[in-house]
Amino acid sequence: HFFNAGARTKRLTPAGPDHAQIAACAGMADYVDDLYAHHFDGDASPAERTAAVTAMKRRHETETLAPLLDFLAGRDDVRVLGHPGIGNDGRRVPTVALDTKKAAKAVAESLASHGVMAGAGDFYAMRTIGAMGCNTDAGVLRLSFVHYTNDAEVEKLMTALDTAL
To answer: Which of 48, 80, 86, 131 is 20 to 30 A (C-alpha) from 72?
Structure first.
C-alpha cells in the first residue's frame, strides 16, 4: 500500500500464508452443514445447503441491521457511508462505516466502555474515505454485524452510540 512504502517490515510477509486461517477453512463446510441441520429439514446437496444457509444468514443480517440504519438516518452528527438502504440488492453488507463529527477513535473508545466493540481508522481504504470527504487522519467508525448478532446487541449499540456521538 502506498502509505506503507517507507515501512520496510510491511513489504513482505516472511512467514507466508496464515496457516491457522488456512487450516480453519476445513471447518467451514462442517459449520454450514451444522447450521443447515439445525434450521432446515431434509436432504440437500452441498450447494443447496450452502445457498439455503447463506440466504438465511443474509435475511437475519438485513433484519438486524435495519433498526441501526433507521436510528442513524435521523441523526445530524454522523454520516453513513455507502448505500443508505438495506434491501437484498447486494448494495449493503452488514458492515457500516460512519463519518462521525467526533473523532472515530474517541467514539470507538466510548462504545468499548459500554461493552460494544467497534473499529476506528481507515481500514486500508484511505483513498476511498478521502474521496468520500472524510478526514483520512481521523478515519471512520466501523460497525460489523454477523449472522449471530441479536436484537438486544443492536439496542445496546444504539444506546451506546447515543451517548458516544
So the answer is: 131
Q: The domain containing residue 49 runs over which residues?
A: 2-164
Q: Tell me: the pLDDT tens digits for 54-100?
A: 999 998 998 899 999 999 998 999 999 988 777 666 677 888 999 99
How is residue 51 written as a grid cell? 445457498
Q: How many domains does the chain have?
A: 1
Which pairing describes strands 119-121 and 78-80: parallel, antiparallel, or unpaired?
unpaired
State the pTM of this model: 0.82
Cell 466510548 belongs to 110
Taking the C-alpha atoms of residue 43 and residue 36, their distance in angstroms, rounded to an integer, is: 10
Exposure of 12 by Cβ count < 10 A (0-12 exposed, 13-18 middle, 19+ buried)? exposed
